[in-house]
Write a structure and sequence with these properties.
The chain is of the alpha+beta class. The protein contains six helices and nine strands, in the order ααββαβββαββαβαβ. About 50% of the residues lie in helices and about 15% in strands. The C terminus is likely disordered.
Length: about 325
């Protein structure tokens, strides 16, 4: 038969329980309070860190976008400068031939000599060539389309352009114009062209050369993309560029169309970037898919923030 605890034992047990509760309850409350404070502090630190990273990304993208816009604006000016230098060369050749042979050759023969010299001059790996137009609109030299030589340029489909070139040479001596050329194929689109001309007074000709603006833009685009591909900042940041149709022009997915790429949460990453860029720029967040073990989750599955800003020509 078991003995009941004595009163002193009962009192002792009760005192021990009270002492434990007096110690554990405040301790547990203190731990919970500190844990809550820690979580709040961690959240604030995380948000501060994210905002700092977003600020860094925006700063870098703004710098690159500004550089691209500046470089694009300079494209036509640089093209004009290049074309002028080429026309100055051709004008100098014609002037030298005229000065050398004007006394010893009949004018028709001298004109043909100058025509042949202009036809044979090339630049830009053979792509660049020259034209010459007489005061009455006759195409004296048409290296790009030799079948048109000796025809009336004023009566051609681009007669208005020919007239503008003649007037420019006659009134100002030299200068450039940008104009639209008809499509070369039935389903093609018009192309912008830049011409530079200079008046050659001894024969009353207008000598010039021309280049399609999109050719220069493509060269500059390749130059810019090579530069963008080389940019790195921070620990693992890079700049990427893409087209509205989803084709990636630089970065890890270069050359691939990423329009339908979706993150594990169903976010259409590239489509979201395009929508954001069309709206003027901003941030989007998405997850990178990876194996969900502890290491991979910490290294790869954190939210990524990207800032994309539209660049204007």
């Amino acid at each position: 038969m078991s003995q009941k605890p004595s009163i002193p034992q009962t009192l002792l047990y009760n005192m021990i329980v009270v002492a434990l509760l007096s110690t554990l309850v405040p301790g547990a409350l203190w731990i919970l309070t500190e844990y809550s404070r820690f979580n709040q502090s961690a959240a604030v630190l995380r948000e501060t860190h994210i905002e700092a990273r977003k600020g860094l990304m925006k700063e870098q993208v703004d710098l690159v976008a500004g550089a691209i816009q500046y470089r694009s604006r300079r494209a036509e000016l640089e093209l004009e400068s290049t074309l002028r230098a080429r026309v100055v060369e051709a004008h100098a050749v014609a002037a030298r031939l005229y000065s050398t042979y004007q006394q010893s050759m009949e004018r028709p023969a001298l004109e043909e000599l100058i025509r042949e010299s202009l036809r044979g001059m090339r630049y830009d790996d053979g792509r660049g060539c020259y034209f010459a137009i007489a005061a009455d609109g006759t195409l004296e030299v048409s290296t790009e389309r030799p079948e048109r030589e000796a025809s009336d340029g004023l009566a051609s489909p681009d007669g208005a352009t020919v007239r503008t070139l003649l007037d420019l040479g006659k009134e100002k001596g030299e200068g450039h114009i940008t104009y639209s050329c008809p499509p070369s194929t039935p389903n093609g689109a018009p192309r912008q062209k830049v011409s530079y001309v200079m008046q050659f007074a001894p024969l009353d000709w207008t000598i010039g050369t021309a280049e399609y603006l999109d050719v220069t833009e493509q060269k500059i685009q390749q130059e810019i993309l090579a530069w963008v591909d080389s940019i790195r900042f921070g620990d693992d940041y890079y700049i990427f560029a893409g087209q509205w149709d989803g084709l990636s022009l630089s970065g890890p997915a270069k050359g691939r169309n990423m329009f339908e790429v979706t993150d594990p949460n169903g976010v259409k990453i590239v489509q979201s970037l395009i929508h954001c860029a069309r709206a003027g720029g901003g941030f989007i967040s998405y997850f990178l898919g990876c194996s969900f073990n502890t290491t991979a989750q910490a290294a790869c599955c954190r939210a990524k923030y990207s800032f994309q800003k539209r660049s204007h020509r």
